[in-house]
């Protein structure tokens, strides 16, 4: 079963994965912790950024601006990386 026109046989689009970046997970300028202090702040500087969403992310949460900080050892987050050729 091959890929045709960027669509996989079950109808999923190629590239529908969280994307690893080279950026460390750091707070945005002006960041202020809210009542969920244990959610992201403890991981600043110790994890890499994942950006976007995957085919398994609910549509209302999909955004190219959304980022997360999962560890690479996890095998349940549908993550990949993008390559390009010059």
Structure description:
The chain is mainly beta and 86 residues long. The N terminus is likely disordered.
Summed up, the helix count is 0
Q: List the uncertain runs.
A: 1-9
Instruction: Give the overall silhouette.
Output: globular
Global mean pLDDT: 78
Blueprint (SSEs and pairs):
Layout: E1 18-24, E2 48-51, E3 67-68, E4 79-80
Parallel strand pairs: 1-4
Antiparallel strand pairs: 1-2, 2-3
Protein traits:
single chain, 86 residues, 4-stranded mixed beta sheet, 0% helix, disordered N terminus, mainly beta
How do you describe this structure in short?
By secondary structure, this protein is mostly beta strands. It has no helices and four strands.
């Amino acid at each position: 079963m091959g890929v045709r026109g960027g669509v996989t046989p079950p109808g999923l689009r190629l590239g529908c994965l969280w994307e690893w970046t080279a950026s460390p997970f750091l707070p945005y300028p002006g960041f202020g912790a809210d009542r969920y202090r244990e959610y992201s702040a403890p991981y600043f500087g110790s994890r890499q950024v994942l950006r976007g969403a995957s085919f398994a992310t609910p549509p209302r949460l999909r955004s190219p601006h959304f980022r997360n900080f999962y560890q690479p050892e996890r095998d349940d987050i549908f993550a990949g990386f993008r390559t390009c050729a010059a």
